[in-house]
Design brief:
The complex is a heterodimer of chains A (182) and B (547). Chain A has 182 residues and is mainly α. Chain A has five helices and four strands. Chain A has a two-stranded antiparallel ribbon with strand order 1-4. In chain A, strands 2-3 form a two-stranded antiparallel sheet. Chain B is α/β, with parallel strands linked by helices. Chain B folds into two domains: 336 residues, NADH-ubiquinone oxidoreductase 51kDa subunit (Rossmann fold), CATH 3.40.50; 98 residues, no CATH class. In chain B, 36% of the residues lie in helices and 15% in strands. In chain B, the strands form four sheets. A six-stranded mixed sheet of chain B has the order 1-14-13-17-15-16. A four-stranded antiparallel sheet of chain B has the order 2-8-7-4, with no helix packed on it. Classes of the chains: A mainly alpha (182), B alpha/beta (547).
Amino acid sequence: MLTALLVMSGIALVLGAVLGFSAIKFRVEGNPLVDKIDAILPQIQCGQCGYPGCRPYAEAIAAGEADINRCPPGGEEGIRKLADLLGVEFKPFGGGTVQKPKAVAFIDENLCIGCTLCTQACPVDAIAGAAKQMHTIIAPVCTGCELCVAPCPVNCISMVVIEEKITTWKWKYPVYPLAPVK
Amino acid sequence: MRTLYQFHGGVHPPTNKTQSTRTPIAPAPLPGKLVIPFHQHVGNMARPLVKAGDRVLKGQLIGMPEDGVSSAVHASTSGTISSIGMEVVAHASGLPDLCAILIPDGKEEWVTHTGMDYRAAASADVRLALRLAGVVGLGGAVFPSDQKLRSGKHKIKSLVLNGAECEPYITCDDMLMRERATEIIRGAEIMRFMLDAEEVLIGIEDNKPEAIAAMRQAAAASDDKMEVIVVPTIYPSGGAKQLMRILTGIEVATGVRSTEKGLQCFNVATALGIYRALRFGEPMLSRIVTVTGNVRNAQNFEVLIGTPVNELVALADPLPDTNLYIMGGPMMGVPLPSAQVSVVKATNCIIAASDKLFPPPPPALPCIRCTRCADVCPADLQPQELFWFAQSKNFGKAQEYSLFDCIECGACNYVCPSHIPLVQYYRFAKSEIRALEHEQTAADLARERYEFRQSRIERDKQERAEKLAQKEMAARQPAATPEAAPDNSAQSHIQAAAERAREQAATARPKNIDALTPQQQAEIAEIEARRAKAREMAHPDAGRPKE
């Protein structure tokens, strides 16, 4: 009887020590699911989801606090990928969500007064300029999040839709007549 | 006798080449206007150097190659630039691109140009000369030739000159080889010298006996080791990888460059362009274009780059039922968005098409997985699988099946018993994958910048908190004796700065006052006098302004 007790508690102690050790040694920093969700999000950093960026939104989804249909720039394709990853049902966008074509911000340099409010708002540092100096958008890194538009006191920022150019043109999905099935 | 090798698959479409080889190459007359796109090559668009209203000479540089892979653009004749703007160009998209519109003055006045001795000059200088002469591959890929003539870390054994011209209807290389073989061989000598290749292999399909004879004669006169090799007529033997395979038996694998295998391939017309650019300093201003199909007089023309297609086609007398123009051949060509677009460096052939000549394909049937397409695929792919993945937008799987090895030759389309437009699917999938990759890199960049910004804000906050803590510490400590403490007041800082400025002003001497011309001295004296006068007017009471 005593032997059995000793053996069992011995095993329990050893296993407990192993588990305790590996919990410290192989500790995972952060939630790996957050990284996977973050990789699907389009990184526009627009905050339309109600969180201050894509990463915080990913964290909220991983924690089960946010729905997967809150990211308009990601499109329905994005929702589908998130649903696949998380093993949940696809959920269409709620009412009032408008998907806009891709755009970049444009500063009318004649109107800019150099207040730096937009540089503070830009989540990806895509605006160059200093206090009382003219500002300008670094277009290749602008994500088109529109966060700079509202803070501008002189309304000199507008969104310019990126038009299809020869270099960005895509071949369309083939459409051709099919023979009727008899 | 050289052993020839075979590539996998291939088809034998009717060649239809005799129509346009009956008459020699004719120079196309000067058109009413030239529309010269700034982006005719692979790589970055050339930067316009001219503006509306400028008079330009024939051969004048009007588009400067921008960094990296790019090429120059020239005025094809002398005249006036009437405007620079967006015009529809010869591209399947039908979208406009930046073009210069040149109104010829008919004088054909050349810009001063001289050739160079490529053997004496440094390789980099020769390549720069080719870049500025706008020499690009005329076989269809329009890749800047200077990039391909870099003798890199790999030893080039064989330089392959591509005169196969396997695509039906097209005869521009055939006629060029018949008429200008010596110049092509001179160009091949230049390329062989620059790449330090051991031998030059010239591959020509056996349906061009005149071209073979002319090239053999010209090659025999060369000091270099050159061999004209007759290859059997099979489509697509003119693909670079396919021709290299036929001539040397070497198969260039996915993701491997042919130079790593000791091979480099050029089109015959490119060789001619390189020769003319280096021997005479003539930039690439014209090219040979086959005009054929639904026309009365199919023929090859030497056409200035920028000539509108409708003016060119009119020379061949198109039949009234022509409803479409195709740039390239019937297998790989793209329908032109309008007849107003201009001939560019990639335009090797214009086919006037009608429903009678190319009847629309019958309605498509489902894929029955007969794998006839796999039998003919020259890239050894599984087109039926690729079709399946592209159709279901399963792009990851399509890439696993080496979609990007597809050369879009159209052999699979040609044999498909269900008449499925397979190549359209591959083009669609390729451009979707490229766009997705582009989006992914943009997202990664945005993520990186966002995270950097977050960490910077965090760091700033921390630094500010530390500074504040330090200040508070300093304030809490009992103040030291006032004599010993350094004078930190604002007043003393200002004083010190003012003193420093005064010292500097005393020691500094004005610059640029040595070795002045008398004229400059006179100017200075005049300005000084004016200043003195102004001072006097400002302070009429003061005798002399204090200095």
